[in-house]
Amino acid sequence: MSSNIEKAAIPKAVEGAIKRILVVDDSRAQRRLLSTMLKRWGFSVLEAGSGDEALEILQTHSADLILSDWMMPGMSGVEFCQIFRQLDKKKYGYFILLTSKSEKEEVAHGLEVGADDFLTKPVSSNELRARITAAERILSMERELIEKNALVSRTLEEISALYDTLDRDLIEAKKLQQSLVKERYRSFETAQISLLLRPSGHVGGDLVGMFPISDTEIGIYAIDVSGHGITSALMTARLAGYLSGASPKQNVALEKNGKGGFAARPPAVATELLNRLCLEEMDTEHYFTLVLAILNLVTGEVVLTQAGHPHPAIQRADGTIEYVGNGGMPVGLIEGATYEECRATLLQGDRLLILSDGITECPNALDVMLEEEGLEALLWRNRHVQGPAMLEALVWDLQEYAGEKEFPDDVSAAMVEFGPPPPVSLNDQDD
């Protein structure tokens, strides 16, 4: 019966955070008494007769808990505790001072230098067991926290590695998306076409492009897929195939002309076809806005369909602005949607600008959007700049308007300038 009571009295510390205890006391009898109790309770025990001896032992052995007498010749228990706290240890060691002192100031000093608890001599076995159990709870929480911190650190490392991989993939995706716009500028005898594509992140949902139709006609388009990021970018890649200049058979804006070649399909019909393809073949909740235009390089006539995209702007040779288009519904929202066409004629020195809402809805530091009035001011300021330089100047001015803010949306533009290209200077030829 007594052996069962003895086992029941053994604290759970034996199976937990406290396995080895270092007893430090200059009294051999006191050490033996404490060691006997601790071993009976299942702990591994180390003994030291002084603080110096204890420090020597700790160079080769670790201790979960230290029981140290306060008053010892040479190094006191308080001094030993202070040095112990400065040791480079992998885990925390619980420190209990054994003392006959009861003065509050001395006890406070012991706590200040690093002691965790006190026991008054002569030591009661019941009180010692209770203090060890309390130490076990504290050390268990401390080591559980260490394990959780280690888990968090490993998780952060894994997340960081995944982020680096994703970041590299997104950089490559950006290169691939930019490659969808194979030509940023093309010059004809009577017109020039410039394209701009600036995603707000690594990849975006805007796309601009052009495709040849005949010797006298060329197609221009601007797309803005709803949302941002990877899914929007994947949809633009799919749409690029439907308006590809390299594969006229797949281009929904073209149809066979009966002479072995291709002719322009009316932009409204092509947009309706895109709407049907989007709803039937693309399993997505995304939709997109679109301007699809056909330019006659001889007459300057433009036939276009506007499907939810901002109104295209015509800047006349004198700098004045006109807006064209019928508004229209975005593509991919409603089955059977129909679209209208509008016509305009570009004269010598005029230009047509098809701009994304990332420009007109760009906010400044006060969250005031640029809107059409601000856009017209930027276009007027850059009315004498031509070609890709004009679009770059537009982005530069837009960044000045936004201030330190990043563009919250993709910025894209397609620009047609009607009239012969500007003369090339001798210096340009040398370059």
TrEMBL record:
Entry keywords, A to Z: Hydrolase, Phosphoprotein
Domain Response regulatory, chain residue ranges per copy: 20-136
Post-translational modification 4-aspartylphosphate, affected residues: 69
Gene3D superfamilies, per the entry: 3.40.50.2300, PPM-type phosphatase domain (3.60.40.10)
Source organism superkingdom: Bacteria
GO MF annotation: an example: phosphatase activity
Gene Ontology biological process terms from the UniProt entry: phosphorelay signal transduction system
PROSITE patterns assigned: RESPONSE_REGULATORY
Record-given protein name: Fused response regulator/phosphatase
Native species: Falsihalocynthiibacter arcticus
